[in-house]
Amino acid sequence: MSLKLVIPLIALLLVGPLFAQDDLPLSEPINYDDSVTDDLTQRAFWDWWHIQAAQGDVIVVDMQAREMLEPLLGILDPDGTLVARSDDGTAGGSVSLEYTVQQEGEYTLVATRVGNENGTSDGPYALRVRRANEVPARENAYQEVTFRCQDYEAANAATIEFADDPEQATYYLISVYGLDGFEPVIRVQFSAVDLTDCSRDVQGVSGNRYALPGEDPITLTDPAVYTDHTAQLLITSAAPVGTVTLTIGSANASPGRYLALIEAFTIEPGDEDGIRIGQGPLASALPLTLYMVADSKSRLDPSIHWTNETTAGAICDDAGRRGCEGVPSPEGLAVYIAEQDAEITADRFDAGLVLPPGPPALRDVTLTAFDQRTSGPYALVLMGELPPRS
């Protein structure tokens, strides 16, 4: 079986404490826009919630008490010094606290009661933390050149971001095949849970087959040949994981071409799926081709729309045909997944786009059905190249 990155349901439900055994105070991580709940007792009369903050962030914390609890909030800086304290709350009331971060680091939100150890109130509470200010200067549109994965360094070839569908269980299979020396690495990050992982796993890929347009099919039969040039990752979760960020890299910056397959997505009538995609810094001098390939058993007629700095927008319905002549036809593109006995085959009705060379920024792309009436599963296929380091 392929390597599975299985995310426990409880890790995704950021609405309550993970462990509250033996009536002890909590000390747990929290992110902006998270809401949590817990009970303060005579023994466990405080909880610590740890948040990573950048200089200039304006942290706003709201604590709503229930029953007879008299709420009180505090914020500790990375050195453990109390830098902000709320007013005393009344029984069953609420308190709020705002603090502008002076230095980057881990801050601790202290949820407690009036009087702390000398207080007498107890009861349940709800706490929410948010960032009041938007800090455009912190947002870096450009991607990192390399990233660490296990005990080696990988060069960033491409990044793609997409939002997980909250109405269905999470299931994504990512397969990357390297050609001409490319050594695939897959890194995955989730916005809803503090988890980053990377893989060069090849378990279960024996028997897989792939073909690029105009080239002969390649079947994976000899591990000595495909181990360094294949990576596969299966992501499953019983609950949504938020925004998924996939980075495709090459170990040790080994140059070459790659073919990446991401499944399974679904379009319903009237739906639009938004993604962000772009070449990594070392690959930004070369184009990146993206195809939206419909499941052969569905009636989906894929369509891609994207806007860049130099055009008002471009729509591609049938790659390589009228109105989409600038995108190579995907005919001949196929990937066979042996474990699933499933084949993804592109044809002249599938949509595509070519991201031209340029700054390594992520571009916004919209995926939908041509008339927004058809529906069905589809896969994303990326074809790109990482040049040698100069």
Residue share in helix: under 10%
Poorly predicted runs: 1-21, 135-141
Principal-axis shape: elongated
Structural class: mainly beta
Task: Enumerate how many helices there are, as a single number.
Answer: 2
Mean pLDDT across the residues is: 85
Total domain units: 2
Distance between the termini: 39 Å
From the alpha-carbon coordinates, what is the Rg to the nearest angstrom? 25 Å
Strand fraction band? over 45%
Largest sheet: 9 strands, antiparallel
Tally of extended strands?
Answer: 29
Notes on the protein architecture:
The two termini are 39 Å apart. Strand 14 and strand 15 form a beta hairpin. The chain has 2 domains: 124 residues, Jelly Rolls (Sandwich); 241 residues, no CATH class. The protein is built from 2 helices and 29 strands. The strands form 5 sheets. Strands 11, 12, 14, 15, 19, 21, 23, 24 and 28 form a 9-stranded antiparallel beta sheet that branches. The chain is mostly beta strands.
